[in-house]
Write a structure and sequence with these properties.
heterodimer, A: about 950 residues, alpha+beta, eight-stranded antiparallel β-sheet, six-stranded antiparallel β-sheet, 45 strands, disordered N terminus, B: about 110 residues, three-stranded antiparallel β-sheet, two-stranded antiparallel sheet, 5 helices, about 25% helix
Chain lengths: ~950, ~110
Amino acid sequence: MSTAGDNESFGSDLIKKEAPVQPKVEEVGDESSYNVEDRDQDDVDEEEEEEEEQEEEIEKETGVKRKRVEEAEDDENDDDEEDEEEEDDEDEDEDEDAVTTTRKRKRRRGANQFIDIEAEVDDEEEDELDEDDEEAELLREQFIADGQNDETNEREHHDDRLHRQYDRKRQEVEDQDAEQLAETLKQRYRKTHTVYRGDTAASGTVSQKLLMPSINDPSIYAIRCTPGREKELVRKLYEKKRTLDRSNSPLDILTVFQRDSFKGYIYIEAKRPDAIDKALVGMVNIYVRDKLLVPVKEYPDLLKQVKSSDVELVPGIYVRITRGKYKSDLAIIDNLSENGLEVRCKMVPRLDYGRNDEFDKEGKRIKSKVRPLPRLFNEQEARMYDGEALQPGRGPRNYIYRGEEYSDGFLYKDFKLQFIQTKDVHPTLEELDRFQTGNNEEEGFDLAAIAASLKNKKGEGKSTAFQPGDKVEIRRGEQAKTVGVVVEASLNEITISVTDSGDPKFVNQKLTVPANDLRKIFNEGDHVRIVEGKHFDETGLVIKIDGDSVILVSDQTREDVRVFANYLVKATDASSNMDTMNSKYDIKDLVELNASSVGVIVKAEKNIFEILTSDGRLLSVKPSGISSKLQLSRREQVATDRNGFTIKVGDTVKEVLGDKKREGAILHIYKNSLFIKSHEIVENLGIFVTNRMNVSTISSKDSMISKNLGPDLTSMNPNLKLPNPAQAAAAGLKTRAGGRDKLIYKDVAVTSGSYKGLKGKVVETDDVYARIELHTKSKKIKVNKNNLNVLIRGEAIPYLRFIGAAPGNAPEFNRPNAPAFSSGERSSWSGGQTPGVGASSAWGGAASTWGGNSSWNGGKTPAYGGNSSTWGGGASTWNGGKTPNAGGNSAWGGNGGNSTWGSGSKGNNSTWGQSKGNNSSWGGNNSTWGSKNNGNNSTWGQNKGNNSAWGKQ
Amino acid sequence: MSSRTERACMLCGIIQPMKRFVDHGCPNCESLLHYQDNEEGQVQDCTSPSFEGLVALGADNRNSWVARWLRIDSFGAGLYAVKVNGKLPPHIISELEAQAVIYRPRDGSAED
């Protein structure tokens, strides 16, 4: 697609349009007659030609008189012919298919058509000569034919006259139009110098406001297309329109346009929507169905020259270079050329001073392809490696090196505007730092400049938070300086209610304004929070308002901060915690500052943390000042309180020293320091630090201490056991380490209370109560365990006896799982279900008088009760090796060694500890237990099992 | 920003290849700016390679609101830019003023 071609045709268009103007005037009335005349004339011509040869000889004999007549006629004819010629010329220009020209003429014209119109003057003269001859012949013929063919001659003669009359008339008109013709020709020649038709002072200038669209204007339709093809489509449609303009069915669209900011759309201006459909027939990359009418009031926005997202190029802003060696490098605009097409940029040069260049055989320098790292210009290096290319510049620190200017180490270079990227610059801190090193006296970044380069980023993602109630001022546009209050805020459009405006009629009206055109208004003394930028989330007091920016004293740094008004919101709270999403450290983290100090982050701000150290100091530390985050597992964070109780994270402790007696949950434990979070104190997030020896435990986070931290020794220590067996049993129960309550799923009978006598199954127990599902009715009741009889094989055993806490009359030794085997002394052996019993309990220790110094199952049968050995069942022998776990190396009644227990064939006569004369018999009807020497004659389970005497004597 | 070698006339906004400006001048502003043959780098001075927004204007420019709004309604058919970066050099502007032609920058700085 070439615009060149277009304009060419455009040019010829002009000609065509202008040329026919003049002849058309006359043709209006006479066209038909003229055509007829012309045709007649042609016929005559042809006849003439045919007759020519035949009558050549006659011709020669023509007399002088005739010739004279001919000449007279010729004069007249000359004029006529000329007229006709011109007529034809123009006809041809106007309409190639005109049928009025003869073949003969066509032939002649055929050659001439390619000659410029201007040259046709000569051509015509030639034609005239020819025609003169023809005319002469015609006359001769007429003379000759006289009398021969009266009728036809008469008619022809008559026609001829008409012809001439008409031509004469035409001539008159032609003469009048000569001036016009001259004018036309003049226009034709100076076609490249058409008068400028744009706005002139004479025509007056129209304010753009008066050009605002109305509903009478043509509609603009937005049509979806493949993104990136917009320009191509506009050009294609332009071609199409230009082409079809010349045809019978021109496109009825007025303009087609695209904007870079509205990707994926092209816009067509047309009076009727069907014209658009017609225009888009056969086009690819365009979605005709997605066609929407643009509201009239949005028209101007479509064609705004300055988009709100545009960054105005002014010296000082950050840009990026898009081409060449410095591609994607950051630059600061130093100056702009006069016409704004070239930009002088200040940037950090990338120079290697030719060090990496190589030389080929002929000594030619091959430039290194490697892009040097950005570094400030170094005069010494330049002099050393590439001295001849270095020239001093104008100033003391100015140099010209390889034709480029360096000042203060920075490169100053002109770039074309199109090689500069102003949007999405996003300078990184690193890049900014490079610029910063140059001028140390000017500390701090140019906030405004950064803001300008960041502007677009904000504009696209989220607009600065305008919230209803914010006082705002319109920055630019027609309504500039209007003050209002935000009533509604959508993403980029803010509706404000005008409170003050230059035009009183706007007051209290609602206006919708793009967010970018608004500026927040604050008053001195307002307490504000910064919501964007470097000082994000700081709060402060406004002390001065300076145009778009506001100066405030930060609550955090106590320093003056200059920020854009739009980056502020009114703050209600004095300080807040930053969103630590992207921070390594979080609030309440235990961090290590150095080898000796550890603390907890109690406040996190932008780039500063407040840390409560283990020695109670409060430090403000930059993130870089924190060496690491301590991640201790819960197991590691264990200590003991002043009473020796274990404390760990989550436990609630209370200070016992100090006047405040603070109390709280432990957050972190580090060596002897406890970081405790209290709900009562406000400062430092309620966190305080104290020594572990200062606190006592109030409650433990979870009561299953032993579960987490190994066996609970205290509860197992026999010395701590209470003498009362019942209590001991209860205590034993309480400390059952994870074991299931024996009572569960046992059939029980209630012995007292309103449910007395009812039977049921235990489904749930706690220390005191059991929940029983009654057999009789579907109900669960809660009963004190002591009011239960456990039903085992039909026998009701009181609960306490069941758990071995109370001696019963008839101990049931043949119970499979729960032998109530109590020494009656301090130790209680509560069945075979305590896995740890063998491990730590000293059965038959100092306190027991049973079996002397024998230790039973000294820790080697941990799962004693888990087996199905029956004790005293009559068939098993203790020490007999038949109970795999219980046996082995147990020496029951160790001295004797030969005790048989329940080993009797009938199971009735077991003797135990016999050797010393202790004749114990157990489990049988006649068992005696105890030593006779000592006079202890115990008989246990004698006869009916009811009369056991143990250690009686 | 166009990557072609096309340039936009800063006065009328028409987009043409550089060569066409040199060979044929601007169809609208030739009488004022005399681009032809590019004497004294006139084309470089008065046209801009940096423009945005492509508008195809047909022959019936008078009826078009778009053309009126962009103030190209009196110009011939062609491709025009909505925004042309850059301004005419001051001496050209004063020349135009002498001829009573109002120059309204097309780079968005015009205020009215």
